[in-house]
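Sharing a chain and its predicted structure for anyone who wants a worked example. Both blocks are below, sequence first, tokens second.
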Amino acid sequence: MYKIATLYKFSRIQNPLKTYKDIRSNLKELNIKGTILVGEEGLNGTISATSEKKLSKAIKYLRSIDGFDALDVKYSLSEKNPFVRMKVKLKKEIVTIGDNSIDPTEEVGEYVDPNNWNKLIDDKNTILIDTRNNYEYSIGTFKNSINPHTNKFREFPKWIKKQKFSNKDKESKNIAMFCTGGIRCEKASSLMKNQGFKNVYHLKGGILKYFELVPEEQSKWQGECFVFDDRVSVKHDLSEGTYDMCHGCRMPITEKDKTSKKYIKGVSCSKCFDKTTEEQKSRYMSRQKQVDLAKKRNQRHIGPKEEIFN
């Protein structure tokens, strides 16, 4: 069983390049797998290790970095290591919203502890917004949440502008937002404060921390939670979910989806079959053959591009 740590914190980094090099060196030494993004605004990542001791050492090291002693970390488990390698990337933003005026190191909304979340979202004066993407929303969300129908987080500011919230709404309504691990809703809360919303709240630790702390019988969550690794989704008990992924379009699919004539393992599903060219399908098919050959040799193929989005 592998222990997985999802982590982030917005905190100003004076020398991102040095921090990037230091993290890469230290985590390579511990044989950590996963991805960490480093930017001027902070750190964002998901990592795993072959032993809990090594993972604990990695987290201890990351928290020793100046400004990151309160690094937000959520844990979950997987029967297999969901990562093939360790990647540390230097980024302009650790979660891309595409608006330079948004600075979560300066101003964000109010954190809401998972144990207090149900009370807030049950309030009739609360507008509940899912800041994740449409395909994440499609497999699970909180009851009565609003789906912005975004394909990328950077589309979120445009969606907010289209809603044309009144000045009265900005003054009196509770805006409650959530995402997988807390990073997107925290940055979105900075956007909302920047645009004049007074009562802005975001779920501390995101859905994963809510699953960890709130008993399932008291949960307002419906469905499973999409995660950006080989598990694809997790259930409320943080065990691996029931979804697989189409490696053609990176969308979650069910066993029923696999019965479609347009489903080709590693190549396409009914959602993307008509959107890809024959050349693309041929390329994906060649990649899948390499994956299958690697499995026969008891090796792990790098496979399609890994993502990180908490």
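Comments welcome. The chain has three domains: 2-90, 110-223, 261-310.
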